[in-house]
Amino acid sequence: MLGRGVKRKWSCLEDHVQQRQLVLGLCLEKLQRCQAGVELSLRRSVLLINTLRQIQEEMRSDGSDAQFDTPLDAADPDSRLLRCDIPVTCPGCAEGDKEGPSPPSVLPSLDTNSSPSPSKSLPAATHSTLSDAVNAVGYLSDLALDDIFEDIDTSMYETSDLVAGSFWPVSVSLWAEEEVKVRSAGPASAGTLQSCLMDLNELDHIMEILVKS
Amino acid sequence: MNLYINCFNRFMGCLGYLLNSALSLFPADIISTVEFNYSGELLATGDKGGRVVIFQHEQESKNRPHLRGEYNVYSTFQSHEPEFDYLKSLEIEEKINKIRWLPQQNAAHFLLSTNDKTIKLWKISERDKRAEGYNLKDEDGRLRDPFRITSLRVPVLMPMDLMVEASPRRIFANAHTYHINSISVNSDHETYLSADDLRINLWHLEITDRSFNIVDIKPANMEELTEVITAAECHPHQCNVFVYSSSKGTIRLCDMRAAALCDRHSKFFEEPEDPSSRSFFSEIISSISDVKFSHSGRYMMTRDYLSVKVWDLNMENRPVETYQVHEYLRSKLCSLYENDCIFDKFECCWNGSDSAIMTGSYNNFFRMFDRNTRRDITLEASRESSKPRATLKPRKVSTGGKRKKDEISVDSLDFNKKILHTAWHPKDNVIAVAATNNLYIFQDKIN
Over pLDDT 90: what percentage of chain A? Predict the structure, then answer.
């Protein structure tokens, strides 16, 4: 039935690309959609992320990333996503990640590294979305208690942090603010959590693109 | 010989226990596990609200010789309560994920029940006598001053109405970081295993403050995590052997004699993927949702999203039998992914003689496969069919082409009505089917 000429094949291919976009979009949506306060199924998250990886791989190998590249790049120079090199792995914050001084705390508001930790300036809403999304991948769920308490920091009450603290109540759009922060912090200081946020940020962009396309 | 199919056709809806009215669909009433005990005399269900309901088989009545006897409620108790994990700011659901009976040793019955984090050992015992005649307390129930008790009085046992008590005997907590998906009592009757997404622990039934971690697949760097444990079970006869299944569609058989930590499996069961049916959903649908040893211990059965496979423990490279449960859904995978049904965890069970297997589907349909004749049947758990003496009619889903009379089209299946949990009586042709918040018990017709 399929072998009826090039046109048919092309439409098959198009169908495939279309389905791939649909699956990709849903994948991201499912990973981000979170139920506040309830631990998500690790099985589901792992399956979704593996699916994302598979799609990413496929897009990379058939170079379909290029076709979306230009317009988006122009619109937002920060969006690496379009090149399809989103670290789909996990929104960043793996335990044992050597980059950050410590895994992101379950209680980011108590996070206490004296080094510039992005979590200090997290808007509350960002935090909840982030931790949910991260929870979805299971990262926060296995923190040793020691880590949590080690991280408790009183520096959040210090005046130097007040500026960052002012972000807290105002978060209307999670990602917009996040961008501000990421840029001001500069890529050099990006810790685990920050890269995590960037990744999520990028996922969000991909979603937007997919939804609009 | 298609004796079995005849039996199935004659499977009779004798009871339709509507635990709750179909009109009041409280989420807490949704049945989350069903399990017969070793003799089949008791049937336990667990629900989303943390309750355990036990049904007992009543003896045959002379008035209704066509029935083997009904199952009536024997005991109901609250096994788990909702909790809150303050460190993680997460709720711990009270939902009962699994129930496993212990072999009966004395007049009392014991079962293990688990939610996501905590396993409990319950004792269910009967009391029909009461000790009376104590003189240690006054009429208000207050203890009397020992100096004022001048005579020795021996209490006497007085008959009373039968009371069934469920009491928690052991609580096995704080050993699982992830969600417990399986518990399985070992054939030594002294130990059991509990599995979560990344680890399997071995417990002694008497010891609650210690367990041995026998499998740990958690990578040092969680970014590298690509696979989770989906189910685990002890071998029915060899207490050193257990299996666990994974989200990648593989099964590992481990021998606890080989090493204390069974990170290295003894056998690895995997069927090569058919490249022609590859899709974006290949991995999701190959994820194994249940694994069960046959009673004989020679085979095991695995359930993935679209099929049931029977594996011979002596052959690792492919299953000896594969049964399609609802192959017509293959073309619908995208919508099933969209509505999250593709992540549903269907369970499966063997009949008492290992000659037939059963598993659930959507639209309140469940499937039975006769291993000898390779014939299969689709039945529906509905209130209609649960009227006494009503015979279950086979149902058919039309797969492409013109829909015949009595067939139901794939598009009209109700994906909210799913049968995830079923149980088969260990000796008789009696089955229990959980359909959302209803429990159906069907039995084979007796001539």
Answer: 9
Q: Is B378 within 8 Å of B399 (Cβ atoms)?
A: no
Q: Which is it for strands B307-312 and B321-324: parallel, antiparallel or unpaired? A: antiparallel
Tell me which amino acid residue B446 is: I
Within an 8 Å CB–CB cutoff, is residue B328 touching chain A? no
> Residue B92 to residues A33, A34, B254: CA-CA distances in angstroms?
19, 16, 30
Residues 6+ apart with CB under 8 A from B364: B380, B381, B382, B414, B417, B418, B419, B435
Tokens of B147: 């100096």
CB-based contact (8 Å) between B281 and chain A?
yes
B199-243: per-residue pLDDT in tens? 999 999 999 999 999 999 999 999 999 999 999 999 999 999 999
Helices vs. strands in chain B: H and E counts, helices first: 3, 33
Task: Calculate the CA A17 to chain-centre distance.
Answer: 23
| Mean per-residue pLDDT of chain B | 89
For B3-115+118-173+271-444, the fitting CATH number among 2.130.10, 2.40.128, 1.20.1420, 3.30.60 is 2.130.10
Residue A74 Cα, gap to closest chain B Cα (Å): 30
Residue B441 to residue B419: CA distance in whole angstroms: 13
What SS3 class is residue B416?
coil
DSSP A119-153: GGG--HHHHHHHHHHHHHTTSGGG--HHHHHHTB-
Distance CA B42, CA B126 (A): 13
Q: What is the DSSP string of B221-242?
A: SGGG----EEEEEE-SS-TTEE
Query: Which residue, B290, B286, B121, B268, is CA-closest to B195?
Result: B290
Question: Nearest CA of chain A to the CA of B407: how many Å?
Answer: 27
Amino acid at the residue A134: V
Q: Within its chain, how far is the Cα of A137 from the centroid? A: 11
Helix, strand, coil shares of chain B as percentages rounded to 5? Answer: 10, 40, 50
Check residue B418 and report its DSSP letter: B
CB contact under 8 A, B177 and A141: yes
Domain coordinates in residue numbering, chain B: 3-115+118-173+271-444
Question: In this complex, do A95 and B93 lie within 8 Å of one another by their Cβ atoms?
Answer: no
What SS3 class is residue B44?
A: strand
A106 by DSSP, 3-state: which?
coil
Of B350, B360, B345, the C-alpha closest to B424 is B350
**Residue B101 · residue B37 · CB < 8 Å:** yes
CA dist B173 and B116 (Å) reads 10
What is this model's ipTM?
A: 0.88
Q: How far from the centroid of its chain's Cα atoms is residue A45's Cα? A: 13
Weakest-pLDDT range from B61-65, B246-250, B255-259? B61-65
CA distance B194 to B176: 9
Instruction: Give dist(CA B398, CA B298) in Å, integer.
Output: 36
Q: Collect all residues of chain A within an 8 Å Cβ-Cβ radius of residue B228.
A: 42-43, 46
Q: Is-contact B346 B353, C-beta < 8 A?
A: no
Output the CA–CA distances (angstroms, integers) from residue B288 to B284, B303, B348, B369, in the order listed: 9, 6, 11, 19
Choose among B173, B289, B183: nearest CA to B228: B289
- Token duo for residue B299: 């085979």
